[in-house]
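tool=predict chain=A
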Amino acid sequence: MRTTLLLPPALLLLTAALPAASAAAPAAPAPPPPRASRAVWPLAGRPVVLRGWQPPATPYGPGHRGVDLAAPPGTPVRAVAPARVTFAGRVAGTGVVTLTLTGTGSPPLRTTYEPVRPSVRQGEQVTTGRPVGTLEPPSEPPHCPTSCLHWGLLRASTYLNPLPLLRPGPPRLLPVPGVPLP
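tool=predict ok
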């Protein structure tokens, strides 16, 4: 009998970045996800998530390919991790910044931010927490019921949930009360 383990999308993101084990090499502890322990929110503090990530069933199907974070226009938007600016400009009238995160495998992870008035240029290297632009007023019709930053994450052309980037590392198992330790 064969058992199939289904992992939630957050764990798939974390495990996809880990290298495959070699049959010839001794097993080594898995490294933490790339840059996950150094990532920060793209807005200062801990913003309210207005709408979470909802993966589409098909590549062109309905869904929400990112998370919406509440913030007023003019709020600084910052790099979540060390990265290279791969796009800073307008798409269909909306300001967009795309960052390719350093050290996140091949193909690398990319984060997107919109609507943002960029303060960086394509090709620039940015550090964690560095401002990359300011939040623009909502478009018409608005994407959110109030002003928000749409924050996305991709690996190649696959959209992923960006929130696991903020976790400080792999989960740790804690002792269960009342169960003796081995």
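The first helix runs from residue 9 to 16. Confidence is low (pLDDT under 50) at residues 1-37.
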